[in-house]
Amino acid sequence: MENKSAQTDKPRKKGGRPLSFDREAALERAMLVFWRYGYEAASLSELTSAMGITPPSLYAAFGDKEQLFLEAVERYSTKRCDALQDMFAQAPTARDAIERLLQSSAVDNTCPSHPPGCLVVMAATNCSASAEHVQTVMTERRENIEGMITARIEQGIQEGELPTSIDAATLANFYAAVLQGMTMQARDTCDRDKLLAIASAAMRAWPVAKVAA
């Protein structure tokens, strides 16, 4: 009689080798390298040195440099969007929400614990054509932030804080441009007091609802 078990039993596939390093900690360190140098300027040797791993380990854990970058951006953006949602939810008015955003940006852009400026604004500004996909992703991230600003301004219009004639998208675009400008200033070693002064000047452009006679 034929031995069926010999025909049906298949060798078990061996599982992948477990990572020999802390993936989240390595990703955090890679994020800081991209933040400091930008996507294309960050070399593989700088990344692996900061992450404390070898190139084969990087490829095994993250795929390639582009995937590592996109995952680092996702990590950064998720934290930023969560913080922004909380900030906007706690602000009593749209004006207060935008003012808090600009002030917190001035503080964060000059925080000594990480590179100056904003990763999403700076990391893919001077990429070559080969990095078009990366630039597209970064643009989408910036547009997401601008969309959140627009939504908070629209809420202010609905609540009567702002005139109904205000174009929420245009006003949001203005403050998004201020935020990006503050990042560039921070990269040019602009100090915190100057960034806070820029934030204060930008808020003087905030429209106010007309008081009924």
Question: What would you note in describing this structure?
Answer:
With 213 residues, the protein is mostly helical. The protein contains 10 helices and no strands. It has helices spanning 4-8, 23-37, 44-51, 55-62, 65-90, 94-109, 119-122, 132-158, 168-187, 192-203. Helix 6 (94-109) runs antiparallel to helix 8 (132-158) and helix 6 packs parallel to helix 9 (168-187). The chain starts with a helix and ends in a 10-residue tail after the last helix. Residues 1-16 have low confidence and may be disordered.
Q: Number of DSSP helices?
A: 10
> Per the principal axes of the C-alpha atoms, what is the gross shape?
elongated
Q: How many DSSP-defined strands?
A: 0
State the assembly state of the protein chains.
single chain
**β content, as a range?**
under 5%
Termini separation (Å)?
103 Å
Largest sheet: none
Low-confidence spans: pLDDT under 50, at least 5 residues?
1-16
Work out the helicity level. Answer: 55-70%
Order of helices and strands: HHHHHHHHHH
Rg from Cα: 23 Å
Q: What is the average of the pLDDT values? A: 88
Q: Structural class, from secondary structure content?
A: mainly alpha
Map the helices and strands:
Blueprint: H1 4-8, H2 23-37, H3 44-51, H4 55-62, H5 65-90, H6 94-109, H7 119-122, H8 132-158, H9 168-187, H10 192-203
Pfam family, one: TetR_N
Region (Disordered): 1-20
DNA-binding region: 43-62
